[in-house]
Structures are given as C-alpha cells and as structure tokens.
Amino acid sequence: MDIKTIDTFDRATNKTLPDFAKFSLAMVFIAIVFIWSYTTHGNVPNNTFLIIGAVFGAYMAMNIGANDVANNVGPAVGSKALTLTTAIIIAAIFEASGALIAGGDVVKTIKKGIIDPGLIDNPEIFIWAMTAALLAAALWLNFATSVGAPVSTTHSIVGGVMGGGIAAAGFAIVSWGTMGKIAASWIISPVLGGIIAALFLYIIKTQIVFKEDKVEAAKKIVPYLIAVMTWAFSTYIIVKGIKKLIKIEFFTASILGLLIAVAVYFLVKPLVAKAADKVKNDRAGINSLFTIPLIFSAALLSFAHGANDVANAIGPLAAINDAVMNASISSKVGIPIWVMLVGAVGIAVGLALYGPKLIKTVGSEITELDQIRAYSIAMAAAITVIIASQLGLPVSSTHIAVGGVFGVGFLREYLDSSDKRVTDKLRKKFKKHKKELTSMTSELGELEVKDSKSKSDYIRIVELYKGIEQKESQVKQEKKDIKEEKRTVYVKRDAVKKIIAAWIITVPAAACLSAIIFFTIKGIMS
Predict the structure, then answer these.
(1) Partners of 107 in beta bridges
(2) Vertex 499 angle, CA 157 and 148, to 5°
(3) Distance between CA atoms of 152 and 145, rounded to whole angstroms?
(4) Rounded-to-integer distance, Cα 488 and Cα 366, Å
(5) How far apart are CA 241 and CA 301, in angstroms?
(6) How many CB atoms lie within 10 A of CB 321?
(7) Residue 65 in contact with residue 95, Cβ under 8 Å?
(8) Is 450's pLDDT higher than 60?
(9) b/e 221-246 (16+ beta carbons within 10 angstroms → b)
(10) What is the pTM of this model?
(11) From CA 290, how far away is CA 268, in angstroms rounded?
C-alpha cells in the first residue's frame, strides 16, 4: 500500500490563515509581551535586556509550540483519530495547563548543568550570554520548522547556552561529560522509542490483527493494552507532570499507576466488549477501538510536556529576570508567573499558527499511520521517558516520538517482506527469469558433458556462460529494485535523512548562532 497524503491535512492546511496573517498575529503577541514587560519593569535598572529577553522568550515559546508539540498529537492526527483542528485545541489547552498548573516554580538557570555559571563573574556578561542563548535556540527552531524537521527544544537550548557560555568565558566553562551524555541521547532516544513502539505494534499484529477472529481477540487483548497504557501515563504524569504540586518517588508512583491501571482494566473491559460487538471483523474495525485511548494520550502527553519542558525552555528568560532584578548570578531561580504565562500562551499561539506543518510531518510524511500504529508510538513516548529517567539517561521527547514513527514503519517493512503473499508475488514476478535460467543451465550442462563438440557447440557454450551471467545479474538487480521500492512505500528515506541531519546539527548550529549573537551584543554594548 502506498503512503497516501492525507486529504484532510491538505484541506486543513489550505483553510489556515495566509502567511501574512499568521505573521501579523504572532507579532501582535510579541508586541503585547513587549508592552507589558516595559510598563511593569520600566523603573528597573538595566531593564533593557529584561524587556528584550521577554520578547525573545515569547518568540522562543511560539517556536516550541510550532515544532515540539507536534510530537504529542502528530500520530493521533495522522491516524485520523483526531482532526487537525481538534488536536490543536486539545494540545494548546493541555500544554498551557501543564505549564501553569504543574510547571516548576524553580528552574536551573543552566539547563542540565552544561556550563558552570561561577566562571562568569559579571552579571551583565551573563545576561548577554543568556539573551544570546534564547534567541539562538528560537532562531534554530524557527528554521527547523520552516523545513519541516522536528528537532529537540531541549537540545536547541543546550546548544544556545553552550555557545553563549563559550563566547563569554571560553571552552573551560562547558561540562563536556554532560555534553557527551546529551550527544549519546541522539542515539538512545530514537532507538529506545523505535524498539518499544515496534514491540507494541508486533504484539497487536500477532495477537489481534493476524487472528482469524479479530473481534474476539480484541475483546481479550485491548483491555490489557489500555491498562498498560493507563499505568504508563499515570506513572509518567505522577513522576514528571505534577512534581511541582507533589514530589513522589518512582516506586510509589508506579504502584499508584498500577492500582489505577487495574481499576481502568475492569472499567473498560465491558465497554471494549460492547464496542467490539459493533465493529467488523477486519483491521479497520479493530482500529476504531483505539481512537478514544489515542485522544487521551494526546492530551496527557501535552500536559506532561507543558509541565516538564516549558519551564526548562524558558529558563534563560527566568535567569535574565533574576540577574536583572538582583544584580547577581544564581544557579537556581524562581519563575515569576508572568514568565510562565509568556511560555504557556506563546506555545499555544505558536501551535495554532504554525503547528500544522510539523504535525503533518510527524503524522503522515514519514510513514502511513493508523490508530494501532499511533497507539504504539504513544506508548513508546511514555514508557521510554520513564525508563530513561530512572536510568539517568538524557533523552529527547522529540527524538523518542519520531523514533517511534520510524520503528513502526520499519517493522511493517520487515513483517510484509516476510509475508507469504509478498513472497508469492515476488516468485510470480521472477518465474519467467528463473525458468530461462534453468533452461540455459540445463543446456550448458548437456553441452559440457558431450564427448565430441563441434565448433558451433563451443560458440554456444560461450554464449550460454555470458547469457547465464547476465540473467543472474538481471534477476538480482530486479529483486533489489523491488525490495527498495517496497521499503520506500513504508518509510520515506528522504524524510528520515532530513530529520536525522537536523538532529545531529542542532546543538552545534544553536551554539554557533549563540556565540555570534553574543559577540554582536558585546560589540554593540562596548
């Protein structure tokens, strides 16, 4: 089956506002942030960079909404469990709610301790570095969104802070061990996400889809799958999403999540059975059973993302605010409500105006998704973050989600390439060539064992050797071409190459941009 460009995406995209209108609305938001920060901090000494930082923070927040949030809702939209408009509304509400309700009230000024702020003794220099980091990360996210590449917001901030820190105090300021772990996450995140997503998809295929009585199998298996999903998301939300409201250790959170999952299992089992009785005994019918779980997963992933990542993303703005207000450099600072509002509202605005491009990329441009595959990706996102956080591994939610998309696509390639129907199709296609090879080989054998050979026999032997060699080469090439053509049907290689390239260069690109911006600011201020 060819990957189909989902018509609803195109129609929704065409119905969205023109580029000029989007730009105008984005500028209105930035103008509001500028006016508010100016009027409320007009009497603060050295307030220029605080106002500039607020504007850059608003710009950064919109780019997070445009790029990063697509990972939470893209699979659900691509599978048609949610319409694009509904997904944007759900994500905007839950992202903002997560940031405002459960976002951190204290944030490290330097994300993941990648530089040592103690090596910068001048608060003014520190403010310049954080301003450069914020703008560089936002510019890189903007570029990545424009080319349709989902990249890590965290890695963009990391690169910006590293570049600004190096420009301010030299290479000694960087914790290279931490940077090594972050580089390792480029591999860890997508691989873990891909493996877990492929595992869930494989279980669903073998235990439900490949069964003769799919409906009966779904009645037994789907409640367990929803229970596992409930455990994963409950644990994820308790550990990562509401840590501001109450801090609970992983073991306790997992037990609470398990209790919730057991309750949900007994609650949904009769509901699934009732719903299954109304669907056809085919894949489309089974897919429909995963629609509601996918809607919940999109909402919960958005809430957890808002609670867990927004505070870190606007950390540089909080650091600028603290340095300006207190004329000092702190390793941890409080996040004023106005800073959190800039992040929360900015994400919602960016998602609504520019989110559809990346939602389309994640949901439909890498591989074709349905509800079963999207469910597997959502499970990968939640479980991978839980595993990685307990192992102390720095992972990116963006890389996990996209890795999950890769995983389900490559699993489809593997399963279909080993499917009997595909084997029969290939056998039929090459039957003629194999018959010709057999005939030529048989004739060659008869001629070679012939006691007395004429001149024409020797000529024919040479022709047969050449013909067999050419025929074997032709068969091999045709098999290779067909296999490659089939693979591109399931996973678009061009999309994979573009996304991986963007991942690899995110940190160095943001770092270089940050250093350039820092030296520009320094030159202007000197």
Answers:
(1) 333
(2) 85
(3) 11
(4) 10
(5) 9
(6) 27
(7) yes
(8) yes
(9) bbbebbbbbbbbbbbbbbbbbbbeee
(10) 0.73
(11) 12
Residue-level pLDDT at 5: 38
- Residue 13 CA to its chain's centroid (Å): 21
Within 205-289, residue ranges assigned H as helices are 214-236, 250-276, 283-288
pLDDT one-digit tens code per residue, 257-280: 999 999 999 999 999 999 999 988
Q: What element of type H or E holds 108?
A: strand 106-108
Distance separating alpha carbons of residues 292 and 238, to the nearest angstrom: 21
Pairing assessment for the beta strands 106-108 and 332-334 based on DSSP bridges: antiparallel
Q: What is the per-residue pLDDT across 51-60, written as a single tens digit (0 to 9) for each?
A: 888 999 899 8
Here the tokens at position 411 are 């699993």
Among 315, 306, 246, residue whose Cα is nearest residue 108: 315
pLDDT in tens, 279-303: 888 888 898 898 888 888 888 888 8
Tokens in use for 507?
A: 């940190």
The rounded distance, in Å, linking the Cα atoms of 400 and 196 is 10
Q: What is the 3-state secondary structure (H, E, C) of 386-413?
A: HHHHHHCCCCCHHHHHHHHHHHHHHHHH
Indicate the SS3 state at residue 192: helix
Nearest to 310 by CA among 48, 33, 91: 91
Closest CA to 173 of 131, 230, 114, 214: 114
The beta strand positions in 226-382, using DSSP E, are 332-334
Number of H helices, E strands in the chain: 19, 2
**SS3 for 106?**
strand
Give the burial class of 306: count Cβ atoms within 10 A of its Cβ; 0-12 exposed, 13-18 middle, 19 or more buried.
buried
CA 121 vs CA 132, 323, 364: distances in Å? 17, 12, 49
In whole angstroms, give the CA distance from residue 48 to residue 188.
Answer: 41
Tokens of 401: 């989600």
Strand partners, 395: none
Cα(149)–Cα(267) distance, integer angstroms: 40
Asked if the model's pLDDT at residue 108 lies above 80, the reply is no
Q: Specify the 3-state DSSP secondary structure of 85.
A: helix
Please, what is the average pLDDT of the chain?
Answer: 81
For 454-513, what is each residue's pLDDT tens digit?
A: 888 788 888 888 888 887 777 776 666 556 555 545 677 677 777 888 888 998 999 999
How does pLDDT run across 304-327, given as a tens digit for each residue? 777 766 665 677 888 888 888 877
Q: Cα separation of 80 and 290, whole Å? A: 11
Beta bridge mates, 106: 334
Is residue 304 within 8 Å of 69, Cβ to Cβ?
no
Backbone angles phi, psi at 174, to 5 degrees: -85, 135
> Which residues contact residue 32 at a Cβ distance below 8 angstroms, ignoring those fewer than 6 apart?
none
Neighbours of 312 (CB within 10 A): 20
Separation between Cα atoms, residue 296 and residue 3, nearest integer Å: 26
